[in-house]
TrEMBL record:
Claim: Transmembrane is one of the keywords in the record: yes
Keyword Glycoprotein found: no
Keywords annotated in UniProt: Membrane, Transmembrane, Transmembrane helix
Record-annotated membrane-spanning stretches: 21-40, 79-104, 111-129, 149-170, 177-196, 208-227
Name listed for the protein in its UniProt record: Phosphatase PAP2 family protein
Protein origin, superkingdom: Bacteria
SUPFAM superfamilies, sorted: Acid phosphatase/Vanadium-dependent haloperoxidase
Pfam family, one: PAP2
InterPro entries in the record: PAP2/HPO, PAP2/HPO_sf
Phosphatidic acid phosphatase type 2/haloperoxidase domain segment(s): 112-223
């Protein structure tokens, strides 16, 4: 008699982990188009765009002042400090390595290598763009937030990792209820990380939108390639 499995994921092989879909290419293309548009607005200092950014930054600072990255500023500041501390590229990269290790030894070696490779490409592209565009951070940003501003590293990393998990790993969870709860929690975490970059005046709005759209373009494009050649 076959004993029931205590594995939270569905069976390893009956279906592809990354289903082939023409929408991946469409979504990647649309995200890339939006990223290019945002980049042009940032680099050309388009007035209406930077005006919106300045108003958002001013509104955030008027409501929250200049909060510090610590656990001494109340409940909201504690949450923002937590998500800002663990939503950056290095912590997210560690999460990717842990997930990839589990996938490599228990499920799909190709998927593990793909995840690490996709995240690595994202990191390199983001770093190169920061050096090329050289955008300054908003006035009043934390001293710890050094370096250039566009695109946001937090937005890049958090979008890549969280949506990678939502689109590839969460659908494989056996329980529908657990899938819904995990998805909602991950989306809330993602939004909190993005919001924290405005809360701490670490980035302009365009930096965050640029990070999100670039990350999604890379993720969907990479998913299209994986579904075609490996799964």
């Amino acid at each position: 008699m076959k004993l029931p499995s205590n594995d939270i994921f569905m069976e390893k092989r009956p279906q592809a982990w990354v289903e082939s879909s023409p929408w991946y290419n469409v979504a990647a293309g649309l995200s890339l188009f939006l990223f290019i548009l945002i980049t042009i607005c940032v680099k050309a200092n388009v007035h209406f765009f930077t005006t919106i950014e300045d108003k958002v930054t001013a509104t955030m600072q008027a409501n929250f002042g200049h909060p510090q990255l610590n656990y001494q500023g109340g409940f909201l500041n504690d949450i923002m400090t937590f998500v800002a501390s663990y939503g950056d590229i290095v912590p997210m990269g560690i999460i990717v390595l842990i997930i990839a290790a589990v996938l490599f030894f228990k499920y799909r070696k190709s998927l593990a290598i793909w995840m690490v490779g996709t995240f690595g490409v994202m990191g390199v592209v983001g770093l190169v763009l920061k050096k090329l565009i050289q955008r300054m951070r908003p006035a009043g940003h934390l001293l710890a937030d050094d370096g250039f501003s566009f695109p946001s590293g937090h937005s890049l990393a958090a979008t890549m990792v969280i949506w990678m998990v939502i689109m590839i790993l969460v659908p494989r969870i056996k329980s529908k209820g657990v899938r819904i709860i995990v998805t909602l929690l991950l989306v809330v975490l993602w939004l909190l990380i993005l919001f924290s970059r405005l809360y701490f005046s670490a980035h302009h709005l365009g930096d965050i939108l640029g990070g999100v759209t670039l990350s999604l373009a890379l993720l969907w494009g990479s998913m299209a390639g994986y579904a075609r050649f490996f799964d």
